[in-house]
C-alpha cells in the first residue's frame, strides 16, 4: 500500500493511501474525513478512469460543502427539527439545514476530522472517537471504517461502531460517481436500477413524512433500468420539492445479509457499477444542487455532474419509530457493509 503526504491540518500531517488489485482498480483514501479521493475503475476493455468527484489538494476538502467522498458519522442524512428523544432524554443537534440537522454537523462531523489509520489485512482501517455529548449525540463512541479493493473489482467498505450508551449511529459514504469519469459531463444519461418497491416520501425540507409509499406508477420506479434524465424533471410533487431525485428508497430483502440493491451503467454501457449492502435504505441524490466549481485535473463540476448512492438507515429515523431502528449501544454493536463493484 502506497502512503504519501496530502497536506497538514493544524500542524498534523494528513495522508493518502492507495489500495489496488491486480486488474487495474485503484482507490485513493485519505485519513482526513476517511475520504474517497480517487477511484479508478476499469471499463469492459480494462481502461480505468477516476469515477469519483473530488479535489486534487487538501485545502478544498476543509470546506467540501458537497461532502465529496466523505464518510458521514455519527448520523447520515437529515433529522427533523435538529432534535430527537431517546430513553426520555432530548438531544439537540446543530441546525445546519434550515431548521433540520444534515449529516451530523457541516463543520465538525467525521468528514472534517483526521482519523487514525492502520494498514491491515490487505486494506486500510480508519478509527475515530467522539465523546459523550459531542455534536449533540450521546455516548462515548468509537467509529471504524475499513476499506479494501477486492479482486472482483469491488471497493468494499465495512463500518463498525461502539458506544457506552444507547445512541443514534447511521454511517455512510457520500461519494459522487460519474461512470464516464469525473468531470466528463452530467449523469442524466446514466441508467439506474434500484431494487426497491417503495420509498419514503418527504416534505419540502426533505424530512420523511413517515409514509412508506409504493414506487409503482411514479417517476420513483427504478425497478427496471431507466435513464436518470428521463423523468427527473417530471411534474411530480416529490421531484419538484427536491429539485430532482434526492430521496430514500426502501431496499428490498433487508434481512441482515449483504445483497445487491442497485446497478448503475453509463450511456455507452462500457462501465457498470453494482451496489451491495446489508442496510435497509439508499439515498439516491442526483447532484441537483451542484454548482460550477473546479474539481480534479482542473475539470469543472456543474449541475448533476455526479450522483450519490448512500446506503443508510432512513432519514429522520430517530423521530420515526415505525422505521428500522438506528439506535446502538452496549447491547447492540453497529456493523454494516457496503460494496461498490464494477462488472
From TrEMBL:
Superkingdom, taxonomy of origin: Bacteria
Record GO terms (molecular function): aldose 1-epimerase activity; carbohydrate binding
GO biological process: galactose catabolic process via UDP-galactose, Leloir pathway; glucose metabolic process
UniProt-annotated binding residues for beta-D-galactose: 77-78, 174-176, 246
Enzyme Commission number(s) from the entry: 5.1.3.3
GO cellular component terms, semicolon-separated: cytoplasm
Keyword Isomerase assigned: yes
Keyword Membrane: no
Annotated signal sequence range: none
Entry keywords, A to Z: Carbohydrate metabolism, Isomerase
Catalyzed reaction equations: alpha-D-glucose = beta-D-glucose
Pathway: Carbohydrate metabolism; hexose metabolism
Family matches, as InterPro entries: Ald1_epimerase_CS, Aldose_1-epimerase, Aldose_1/G6P_1-epimerase, Gal_mutarotase_sf_dom, Galactose_mutarotase-like, GH-type_carb-bd
Active site per UniProt: 174 (proton donor), 310 (proton acceptor)
Gene3D superfamilies xref list: 2.70.98.10
Family per record: Belongs to the aldose epimerase family.
PANTHER family: ALDOSE-1-EPIMERASE, GALACTOSE MUTAROTASE
Entry-linked NCBIfam families: PRK11055.1 (NF008277)
Identification of the protein by name: Aldose 1-epimerase
Organism per entry: Candidatus Eisenbergiella merdigallinarum
Amino acid at each position: 500500500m502506497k502512503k504519501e503526504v496530502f497536506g497538514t491540518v493544524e500542524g498534523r500531517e494528513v495522508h493518502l493511501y492507495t489500495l489496488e488489485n491486480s486488474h487495474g482498480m485503484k482507490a485513493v483514501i485519505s485519513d482526513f474525513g476517511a475520504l474517497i479521493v480517487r477511484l479508478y475503475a476499469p471499463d469492459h476493455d480494462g481502461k480505468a478512469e477516476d469515477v469519483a468527484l473530488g479535489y486534487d489538494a487538501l485545502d478544498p476538502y476543509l470546506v467540501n460543502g458537497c461532502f465529496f467522498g466523505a464518510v458521514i458519522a455519527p448520523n447520515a442524512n437529515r433529522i427533523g427539527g435538529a432534535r430527537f428523544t431517546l430513553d426520555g432524554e432530548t438531544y439537540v443537534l446543530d441546525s445546519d439545514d434550515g431548521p433540520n440537522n444534515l449529516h451530523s454537523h457541516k463543520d465538525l462531523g467525521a468528514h472534517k476530522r483526521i482519523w487514525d489509520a492502520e494498514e491491515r489485512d490487505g486494506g486500510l482501517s480508519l478509527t475515530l472517537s467522539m465523546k459523550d455529548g459531542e455534536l449533540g449525540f450521546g455516548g462515548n463512541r468509537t467509529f471504524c471504517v475499513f476499506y479494501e479493493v477486492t479482486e472482483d473489482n469491488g471497493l468494499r467498505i465495512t463500518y463498525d461502531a461502539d458506544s457506552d450508551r444507547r445512541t443514534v449511529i447511521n454511517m455512510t459514504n457520500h461519494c459522487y460517481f460519474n461512470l464516464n469519469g469525473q468531470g466528463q459531463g452530467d449523469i442524466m444519461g446514466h441508467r439506474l436500477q434500484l431494487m426497491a418497491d417503495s420509498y419514503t416520501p418527504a416534505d419540502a425540507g426533505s424530512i420523511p413524512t413517515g409514509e412508506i409509499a409504493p414506487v409503482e406508477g411514479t417517476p420513483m420506479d427504478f425497478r427496471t433500468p431507466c435513464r436518470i434524465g428521463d423523468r427527473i424533471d417530471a411534474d411530480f410533487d416529490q421531484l419538484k420539492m427536491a429539485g430532482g431525485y434526492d430521496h430514500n428508497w426502501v431496499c428490498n430483502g433487508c434481512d441482515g445479509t449483504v445483497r445487491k440493491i442497485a446497478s448503475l451503467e453509463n450511456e455507452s454501457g462500457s462501465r457498470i457499477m453494482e451496489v451491495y449492502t446489508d442496510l435497509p435504505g439508499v439515498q439516491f441524490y442526483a447532484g441537483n444542487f451542484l454548482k460550477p466549481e473546479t474539481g480534479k485535473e482542473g475539470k469543472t463540476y456543474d449541475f448533476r455532474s455526479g450522483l450519490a448512492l448512500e446506503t443508510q438507515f432512513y432519514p429522520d429515523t430517530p423521530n420515526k419509530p415505525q422505521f428500522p431502528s438506528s439506535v446502538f449501544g452496549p447491547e447492540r454493536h453497529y456493523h454494516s457493509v457496503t460494496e461498490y463493484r464494477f462488472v
